[in-house]
Amino acid sequence: MQFPPELDPDKIPVHVAIIMDGNGRWAQQRSMPRPLGHKVGVESVQAVVRAADDLNIKVLTLYAFSTENWKRPPFEVNALMGLLKSFLLRELETMLENNVSLRCLGQKDRLPKAVRETLDKVIAETADNDGLIFNLALNYGSRVEIIDAVQAVAHKCEVGELAVDGIDEELFAAHLYTGGLPDPDLLIRTGGEARLSNFLLWQASYAEIYFVDTLWPDFREDDLVDAIRVYQGRQRRFGKTGDQVQQS
Ligand code: FPP
């Protein structure tokens, strides 16, 4: 993709996170079974990963399966796991060619063995790539992530590796699944709902949030460009006044 003239190349968000919603409705509107919406949603994933790379985004995080998604009917969960595995196998070569490194946010142990093994293989084979960092949030829940971090920090205090007074925001953030990565600058949710659904609750504290009605299977490069254009038009204040920000 050519760099779009309507975007400022110096103000590209470093980290973009997306809640990919609306696959089921996309399929239902066409009287198709819900998994077909997920299947077409995979094409949006491919398009957005390529576009993110072309736009010079450094970190892309996609919410692919939440800790709550296990409550869906088994045929839908199985379809999603199958799509995930085939996507990983198919995209490995492209990720290697484009210097993309894949990471997983979430507890991998509950994923089916075949998916876990494929995921581990792609993560290992792309680990040395230093281009786009592509995070897939899988069996991810922000509250579980925060509890995991609390436990890890508490354990270090218990064994005397860390003093309670030594716990600050930076140290805590380093124990989240996103440890070492910058917080998202832009968080997009497709599908018309305006909620965070247990996604990156700590990390999104200062993210610009962009809710859009477009259903995920219809979301393509141009829609990502639109989201970034809106983001670039916003003033990020981080608690300061608008005047202070303008002067800095
Ligand atoms: C939400 O739409 C979407 C999901 C729960 C899964 C997202 C998965 C994909 C896009 C495909 C697999 C992912 C990868 C990375 C290969 P929904 O089903 O809740 O939609 P609805 O709100 O319209 O019912």
Spatial strand arrangement across the major sheet: 3-4-2-1-5-6
Bound molecule types: farnesyl diphosphate
The span between the termini is 33 Å
**Considering the protein shown, what is the CATH homologous superfamily?**
Decaprenyl diphosphate synthase-like
CA radius of gyration: 19 Å
CATH topology: Undecaprenyl pyrophosphate synthetase
Number of beta-strand segments: 6
Whole-number total of structural domains: 1
Q: Give helix % range.
A: 40-55%
Percent of residues in β-strands? 5-15%
Number of helices: 8
Q: Any idea of the CATH class?
A: Alpha Beta
Architecture, CATH level 2? 3-Layer(aba) Sandwich
Task: Tell me the overall shape.
Answer: globular
What is the string of helix and strand elements? EHHEHEHEHHEEHH
Which blocks of ≥5 consecutive residues have pLDDT under 50? none
Overall average pLDDT: 97
Largest sheet: 6 strands, parallel
Q: Structural class of the helices, strands and pairings? A: alpha/beta
